[in-house]
Specification:
With 109 residues, the protein is mainly alpha-helical. 66% of the residues lie in helices and 0% in strands. The chain contains five helices and no strands. The chain has helices spanning 2-16, 25-39, 45-60, 64-75, 84-97. The longest helix is centred in the middle third of the chain and has 16 residues, at 45-60. The chain is globular and about 40 Å long.
C-alpha cells in the first residue's frame, strides 16, 4: 500500500527533472512531413508546414489503445475505417487540406 502513495511522487519527480537535449518527437514528425511534401512537390514550404502541423496534430490525439485496436484489425485483415474514432480522424484530416493548394506528388529531381 505504501508504494501507491510514493508512486505519484516518483512520477512527479521524473516530470520535474529538466530533460537536457530531449527530442521533440512531434516536431521531428512535422519537419519530416514538411521536407517530404516539399521534396515531392506536393506543396511549397509554407503550405506544407500548415498541412503537416494539422495532420500531425490530428494523429497525435490518437490513444495507444486506439493504435493497438487499428493494428489488431489490420492483423486480422479487417477494415478499421468503420470505427467511430477512425471516421472522426478521417474527417479531421480532410479538414487539414481545406483551402490549401496541394499537387500530386512528383519524383524529386
Amino acid at each position: 500500500m505504501k508504494v501507491l502513495h510514493v508512486l505519484p511522487l516518483a512520477l512527479l519527480g521524473l516530470v520535474a527533472i529538466p530533460q537536457a537535449n530531449a527530442t521533440n518527437i512531434k516536431q521531428d514528425n512535422i519537419n519530416t512531413c514538411v521536407n517530404g511534401a516539399v521534396k515531392y512537390k506536393v506543396a511549397d514550404k509554407n503550405t506544407a508546414t500548415k498541412l503537416c502541423n494539422c495532420t500531425i496534430g490530428v494523429r497525435s490525439n490518437m490513444t495507444i489503445g486506439q493504435m493497438w485496436e487499428i493494428e489488431s484489425y489490420a492483423m486480422d485483415k479487417k477494415d478499421p475505417s468503420g470505427l467511430p474514432y477512425v471516421k472522426k480522424m478521417q474527417r479531421d484530416l480532410q479538414q487539414c487540406t481545406t483551402g490549401l493548394d496541394l499537387k500530386q506528388p512528383q519524383k524529386p529531381a
